[in-house]
Amino acid sequence: MTNTQKEPSKPIPVASPSASILLISSSNEILLLQRVQASSSFASAHVFPGGHIDAEDGSLPPRGDVRLHEDSLAYRIGAIRECFEESGILLARDRNNENNSASASLQQLNEQERDSGRTAIHKKQIRFQDWVDSHGGIVDTASLYPFTRWLTPANISKRFSTQMYLYFLPLAHAGIPQTLHIPTCDGGVEHTEAQFLPASEWLALAQADKIILFPPQIFLLSLVADFLKSDDTGTSADTLQSQRQGLLEFVKTGDPPWGEKCISPLALKKEGKMLVMGLDEPGPELEGTGRRGDMERVVYVQFKGKDGTSGLKVGWRKDVVDGGLKDEERSEYLEARRKERERRGSNEDLEQALRGRREKL
Predict the structure, then answer these.
(1) DSSP percent split of the chain into helix, strand, coil, nearest 5
(2) DSSP code of 311?
(3) Left, alpha or beta for 290 (phi > 0: left; psi -120 to 50: alpha)?
(4) Strand 159-168 vs strand 15-24: parallel, antiparallel, or unpaired?
(5) Are 194 and 183 within 8 A, CB to CB?
(6) In the structure, what pLDDT confidence band is assigned to residue 140 with cuts at 50, 70 and 90?
(7) Of the candidates 33, 80, 102, 270, which lies 20 to 30 Å from 185 by C-alpha distance?
(8) pLDDT, tens only, 261-277
(9) Which of 354, 355, 346, 351 is nearest to 9 (CA)?
(10) CA distances to 78, 177, 283 from 64, in Å
């Protein structure tokens, strides 16, 4: 290879479809699960319940189709199935009370029924929807609220296209045993701990380096913490409901709205040991589609290799890009963005050429 020849760009790793739920308790706390140390992704980190979309969850558009990265029934089924497998909390409604609100008709199963079903579904001995149906239930996909999609950056070898959702467990209600909403870990298969805490408390634990959070978790918890607040003295049901309504109204705002934002974090600059990551790019799969993420905020992170991140916080993009970058830093930032787009273009040209060859064959 001569000095004038370009080294071929490496293909961008495929982003596997996945889904996660910000599960909100009857007291407006958020559920996080701690991943096992031996996990191949997010080892020891605290994450929202969720995981890969399986074929049994429903059909998805083919790889390369931009619709693969849109909310759909398969993502919703997969999110609820994974939540049940990982936490034991079943988000399903009683078929006999189908026309009632979800808060008044969550499916009620005893502990033995839930545990045996959880094991059978995880081992793929029975299809999740079939198991729910056999117990007189309907998977409560209608009560999921889309709350951003995240595509792993193109330079990471193991990538995901993750649809995030909000789900509100019913407020304290005389007809619903609260034991149904107590999370339990999966016996160490994928997680070692499952716990509800206020969003602000999860953030404080991360800032104190007591837990590991990654950018999606720190960012979404920071947004939610502005609306959902819980205290030891007990917050009234009216106040809790008002907090929830405030969050749902916020989700509808923005351009695009939060339910449609697609975020693939991209490094903007370094500040000491901290890396400032922009949240406006949608990821290489959605380049040129008009979809985008959050134009106003950034996430500050300090990566510790495979051990996760620390010192995470959310800041305003204008403080970094508009007025926060020196001329030299701005030039470096723009050059990095140019190279990233050039690399993506090279990969797209290669893929088109390969498609052409396959069609001829």
Answers:
(1) 35, 20, 40
(2) E
(3) left
(4) parallel
(5) yes
(6) very high
(7) 102
(8) 999 999 998 888 888 99
(9) 346
(10) 20, 45, 13
